[in-house]
Amino acid sequence: MAREQFGVCAEPNLHGSYLLFNVLDNRNAFIRTALSRLPELFDDYADQFSEANLTGVVAIGANYWDEFYPQARPALLKAFPSMDNDDRVAPSNNVDIYIEIRSDRSDVNHIVCSKVCQLLADSVELIEQVQAFRFLDGRDLTGFVDGTENPQGMQRRNVALVQESDDANFASGSYLHIQRYKHNLTLWSSLKNEEQEDVYGRTKVDNIEYESDKKPLTAHTKRTSLKDENGKSIEILRQSMPYGDVKEQGLFFVSYCHSPEPFEKMLKSMIYGDGHGHVDHLLKYTQAETGAAFFAPSLTFLTALGNISV
Ligand code: HEM
Hints:
single chain; alpha+beta; two-stranded antiparallel ribbon; 28% helix; binds protoporphyrin IX containing FE
């Protein structure tokens, strides 16, 4: 079976750097070769700074895939599902390439980001770079621990990676969605502690889940904790991190999954609610400013790209 890119299922780090690029015209062949070399570049720096726990992910935008690799397309790859209901929005952006670099040292991230940009050089336009960081004991900037109900151990791979039986050509790849959320922390801070806890359906300091019958239908964990028709939990692997400075801040939301559907179902449940007016109250205090969908192919697929002429 193909190997996955190591960053997809990696454990949380202290620092994250997210690079979003668009590819210039007629540069596809160069880009294929350049991206195929990135895993080796990540490995070299991971060896050199072994205590930094460096990992990387390279992903290809849903709208760019056919130019990038016209021979075949991941079976379920589609554009980001933009949504809009009252003041809850999920906008969609065109991004060709996503590169995630995470480690426990911001200087190492900086070195690797610079090398990536040098390598891609004149063939891309850098649309955005987001510098993210671990906040306290893995909390979002709203003060609540983020990631507690993430799949653990082997279950991370089951949730995040495409299985051989589902799409043999793209096994061990992962469907990726990103959204950059901007928080309104002034409004959030005006809430009492208990009101904030009701928004999440969890307690703040000790991070305990509310009893099911005490959880408001508008709680974020109610709206995102979904089951399929057989009663099985629908899951994604979140690798989000806080970003920003004192002027502007929020969450860089990152979700990996074996299919794009779980993310879309959860986002729909947050924005459009349950059909009885119960929408996600977290969205009163934060707003998605960007959104994009990608496929992160397996390491095996990515490294073989350099040998392909299209
Ligand atoms: C600014 C945006 C967001 C913030 C600050 C945020 C924060 C949190 C926090 C603090 C938790 C509780 C602890 C945990 O289990 O991780 C949580 C749970 C969760 N979130 Fe979010 N989240 C955001 C957006 C999203 C989005 C866009 C999705 C998916 C479309 C999502 C999916 C989930 C899921 C699946 C859970 C676990 C629910 C459970 O099983 O209890 N989140 N989130």
